[in-house]
Amino acid sequence: MMDGSKGPKRPPVLILLGPPGAGKGTQARMLSERFGFIQLSTGDLLRAAVVAGTDAGKRAKSVMEAGGLVSDNIVLAILADRLAEPDCANGVILDGVPRTTAQAKALDTLLANAGQSIDAALALEVDDVEMVVRIAGRFTCGACGEGYHDSFKAPKVEGVCDCCGAQDMKRRADDKAETVMARLDAYHAETAPLISYYEQRGVLWRIRAMGDIDEIAAKITGVVAAITA
Ligand SMILES: [Zn+2]
User: Fold this and answer.
1) Which of 29, 170, 172, 206 is catalytic?
2) For residue range 124-163, what is the model confidence (pLDDT) as tens digits?
3) Ligand 1 mean position to 173 CA, how many Å?
4) Which residues bind Zn(2+) per the record (predicted)?
5) Active-site option among 61, 176, 183, 219
């Protein structure tokens, strides 16, 4: 769409951006099933490279064993190796990489060397306040694991599990409203530069991600169909 050249068809490279709780994992799986894209997340990439014992994998392993953070260069070297593997020929979805604009620029260079480029950055957008209500309202029965929600699925008798009758409701510390808000703030602070980077390149698609999962999937599918047509 942005690319005027009509070279040989190359595998699309998509980036999926979205805060925790926006359903990124679900949408990435949908894209894998529907289009045959391979989902590449930083964690999976690192683990696989360490297991495979590639050069970059060995470097990552020694950094991690020393308790350090694996550098952008190593992550990108691992990504470059991975993109060259045959199963990536249908296209890939990157999740968690790039993280910074420096990484995004390095990724552009890496892709350009392989005759590729970012085809779309899909930014899942949420309503922060509504997200906090959704996440902070969750709790589960400690006995049977049944899930509940203050607003959407309260037990019939407060504090008593509908399924097993236990009175052992648990809330995850991570789901506290302040924690969720802090996580969203951190996400926005980290991602805003990436969003504008991809917007300037004309590959950013903002996808409202508050509705029904299937509706969100349909929007994403529409974008992907358009850019791969
Ligand atoms: Zn229960």
Assistant:
1) 172
2) 999 999 999 989 999 999 999 999 999 999 999 999 999 9
3) 19
4) 141, 144, 161, 164
5) 183
**Alpha-carbon gap, residue 79 to 10, rounded angstroms:** 17
Q: How many domains does the chain have?
A: 1
Q: Is position 38 within any domain?
A: yes
Contact in structure between 175 and 135 (CB atoms under 8 Å): yes
Element (H, E) at 222: helix 213-228
Q: What CATH number did the domain enclosing 177 receive? A: 3.40.50.300
Q: What is the pLDDT of residue 96?
A: 86
Q: pLDDT per residue over 110-126, tens digit each?
A: 999 888 899 999 999 99
Is 138 one of the catalytic residues? yes
| Residue numbers in the chain where pLDDT is lower than 70 | 1-9
99 is a catalytic site residue? yes
User: Catalytic one among 99, 176, 201, 219?
Assistant: 99
Whole domain around residue 167: which residue ranges?
A: 13-228
Per the structure block, which two tokens stand in for 59? 């470097």
Question: Would you say 138 and 108 are in contact if contact means Cβ atoms under 8 Å apart?
Answer: no
Task: Indicate if 183 belongs to the active site.
Answer: yes
